[in-house]
Amino acid sequence: MKWSTVAALVWAAIPCATLACGAPDVQADAPVKVAQAATGDEKPQVKRTVLRRVNVPDSKYEVLVVLVEAPAGASAGRHTHPGSVIGYVIEGEYTMMIDGEPVRALKPGDSLEVPSGAVHDERAGDEPAKLLAVFTVERGEPLSAPAP
pTM to 2 decimals? Predict the structure, then answer.
């Protein structure tokens, strides 16, 4: 599937409450907090780039459309999110390991969901991976926090 098609699908998936009902846009390049544990190693890092962020009217939430890029073999490390995440694999193979659930091997075209607060890890396969993710989180909270 072409990147433009994927982007169009994500824009269409964002609820009316966040776009069409008068919600103010928030700058895509506004700072995004991503808490990371100090590991002391030089493993490749998963990169998150905010493409669009929108405040949900009359709430404490915001919706962020994020491009997730993982170099070959990169792992995000065990972490949580302060809200729900849905994602769509664009390129490469990606493995999701959510505590209490079976490990999921994902390929381009597969989607995923991470419930709010779920402890999980994610890893790229032998090739780099790209995902498009939609985060619904409380404004001002980091997108992720390390988990034990």
Answer: 0.73
Query: Average pLDDT of 112-121?
Result: 97
SS3 11: helix
- Percent of the chain with pLDDT strictly greater than 90: 66
Task: Find out whether 75 and 121 touch, Cβ atoms under 8 Å.
Answer: yes
Q: What is the pLDDT of residue 148?
A: 81
- Beta-sheet strands, E only, within 27-92: 47-55, 61-70, 79-80, 83-91
In 3D space, the residue among 38, 37, 26, 119 whose CA is nearest the CA of residue 81 turns out to be 119
Exposure of 94 by Cβ count < 10 A (0-12 exposed, 13-18 middle, 19+ buried)? buried
Residue 128: partners with Cβ closer than 8 Å, 6 or more residues away: 69, 70, 71, 72, 91, 92
The Cα 82–Cα 36 span in angstroms is 14
41 token code pair: 């190693």
Cα–Cα separations (whole angstroms), residue 83 to 42, 68, 114, 142, 144: 29, 17, 9, 10, 9
CA distance 68 to 49: 7
